[in-house]
Design brief:
Layout: H1 2-16, H2 20-23, H3 37-60, E1 65-68, E2 71-74, H4 75-78
Antiparallel strand pairs: 1-2
Amino acid sequence: MNRFQRERIDLVARLRRLRPQDWQRTAEHEEYSRYSVFILFRHVVMHDMLHAYRIEECLLKKDWAYPGPQGWVPRTHERGEA
């Protein structure tokens, strides 16, 4: 997570230096009819948000495992269930 955070901080700093016209620069993409710097980074944000959602979804589940001293332990063990 530390590496991810550092890399995103660096990325945001670079994006803040872009001029308005830089955001509209386009490139060829084999799947999309148009692709710009803006679309690229919007996809990056949506991709990150998807992962954040999945992490939260897993952590909220009653039977999700958590890191214990012996490794990952299902939450059911926490309540004395097996």
